[in-house]
Amino acid sequence: MQIHLKNDDFIVSKTDLKGRITYGNEIFIKMSGYQEHELLNAPHNILRHSDMPAVVFKLLWERIQNKESINAYVKNQCKNGDYYWVFANVTPSFDERGNTIGYYSVRRKPTDNALKIIEPIYADLLKSEKQSGMHASEKLLKSILKSKGVSYDEFIINLQK
Q: Confidence class of residue 35 from pLDDT cuts 50, 70 and 90?
């Protein structure tokens, strides 16, 4: 069953460099269906829904490991099997010397229009991954963006408007 965020909900979490959860705000814990002690030090992909194409996470990790932020639409799975969609902004966290020390993610409710567009694209990307691997999915994503004449960032941000 799908759970919906409220318009003014913000989910916040932090991870270490390996993607293990080091902090989650109250709504993050509530939405996940896990207890806080089950989430802390667990890999963030504990929430990964099987409908999510791996290529989205590949792009996400490439960006944040390159000290860049990224926005993405993510379908998360709750402990009980329910799910929820988020519009996520993931940003590296730095120490005083500019070294990456972890990652910070703020998620909010995606627009209905964004989901109408992103869900079939993700289904196609996932199908491509299952049939021909990550490279094929990545190629398909680039093709979709090229056909729309936009960069990944432009596409994702414009969906949320």
A: very high
Buried b / exposed e across 66-80, counting CB within 10 Å, b at 16+? Answer: eeeebbbbbbbbbee
**Interval 43-74: pLDDT, tens:** 999 999 999 999 999 999 999 999 999 999 99
Within 10 Å of residue 38's Cβ, how many Cβ atoms? 14
Given the structure tokens 């940003």, which residue do they identify?
91
pLDDT digits (tens, 9 = 90+) for 111-161: 999 999 999 999 999 999 999 999 999 999 999 999 999 999 999 999 999
